[in-house]
Amino acid sequence: MKNDLGDLEFFGENLYAVHSIAYTQLEHYYFVFAARINEVWLSWEEVTFYANLFDLPMVPVLRSDSVRDLTETQLEKTVQHLASQPSIFGSVDPGTGISCTSEGLVCRNAGLIPPPNFSIISLSMCAKDMYRRMNIGLKPGKERNLFGKGKKLMEWKLTTDKDWLKLEKQFSWVEAMRNVPQDPIHHAEGNVAIHTQLVLEQLQQSNIYRRLGRQRQELLWAAALLHDVEKGLRP
User: Fold this and answer.
1) Within this chain, do residues 117 and 186 fall inside the same structural domain, yes or no?
2) Full-model pTM
């Protein structure tokens, strides 16, 4: 299949491994949520077209709205409401077998997204509490710049000191990562803290990351730091 894609790249979520959530109603293990060609992120219509062309399942669309006149409060309430619902794939706590909320959400512009704009018109979210935590460090009134048309990109930084030991002291959810074991088959490195440090190390060594502007580096670094944090939020 790789030789048939050319410049087309698919991005998706692999649900084969059981982490903090298990799914009881999966028909597939891999679901596409984005695609790009030569650094241009395709519109949702194009993503759907190419995924169907290669017979790849798509992530479910929970809601489609115009955000032109959407206020920050309305957006926050909408995202939190969706994140508080069980997954349509039958999400359960693997320890108790009890139904639980979905693992996360991805919000994006439905249209085509040129490379310079991807970081300001898409966001991902793991667990309902992470929406508020991702706003740490934002200046008052700047949050809406994530979705404001034609507005200057916000100056945002999760933290100025990226040393891992300093991060553990500053954020309790970073410190908690060392107590969350990983799957011995799919993540044999040990625990979430080790895994996350390896991800950050690889990211910062990437030539693509180094070519990004300072603000986009900050956003991508924060996304990498947070990508598995939800595993430590569940009992």
Assistant:
1) no
2) 0.51
Give all strands (DSSP E) within the chain, no chain letters. Answer: 8-14, 22-23, 30-37, 40-41, 91-92, 104-108, 122-126
Q: What is the CA radius of gyration of the chain?
A: 18
Per-residue pLDDT of 40-53, as tens digits, reads 888 888 999 999 98
pLDDT of 32 reads 92
Q: Which amino acid is at 185?
A: I
Q: Containing domain of residue 186, as a range?
A: 157-235
Residues near 7 by beta carbon (within 8 Å), at least 6 away in sequence: 37, 38
Question: Cα–Cα distance between 191 and 178 in angstroms, integer?
Answer: 6
Q: How far, CA to CA in Å, does 147 sit from each of 9, 188, 224?
A: 25, 39, 21
Place of tokens 């809601």: 63
Tell whether 17 and 97 lie within a shared domain: yes
Domain end, chosen from 154, 173, 205, is at 154
102 shares a domain with 59: yes
DSSP 91-122: EE-TTT--B-B-SEEEEE-SS-B-GGGGGGSE
Amino acid occupying residue 130:
M
Strand 40-41 and strand 22-23: pairing?
unpaired
